């Protein structure tokens, strides 16, 4: 099974995370940030990743460190669980509707962390959650996972729907990319022979 366990303790956050790429979409998530919990729970479900995550963070400052550090740890877990990426499909893309919102995401398990985030959020907050932290999460995730990720908002006016559409779309794109290709299960999907 392709799994990873990450423990990361800093002066700002204490995180424990386990990930199974070949799961059923089951999750137990407690970050101390309700909106992030919601996003990660639906991320696990739509990606069919099993995710157990606890984070104690400095919420008296704000949610920034928690969101960024959870992104770091989730990226580290994907990188560890994928190993050398032998047999994976490598690419995945999804255009996902979320009510009035339409989000396109595209993933390449390239070994090179890169984010293109073209999202226009109409409000600064969803509840108490700073909407700019959506980009911070994906930036931390892609850097640590070594994944190229494009997220593009094609339509949408509700910040909650836009952010939720991003997490659902990326989850489904990753689900496709990390899937094992039965025709090439023993091959690295690159003419270079490595993904870096």
TrEMBL record:
A GO BP annotation: L-histidine biosynthetic process
Name recorded for this polypeptide: Imidazoleglycerol-phosphate dehydratase
Compartment(s) of residence: Cytoplasm
Catalytic activity: D-erythro-1-(imidazol-4-yl)glycerol 3-phosphate = 3-(imidazol-4-yl)-2-oxopropyl phosphate + H2O
PROSITE patterns: IGP_DEHYDRATASE_1, IGP_DEHYDRATASE_2
UniProt main location, coarse: cytoplasm
The species this protein was found in: Candidatus Avoscillospira avicola
Taxonomic lineage of the native organism: Bacteria, Bacillati, Bacillota, Clostridia, Eubacteriales
Positions of transmembrane segments: none
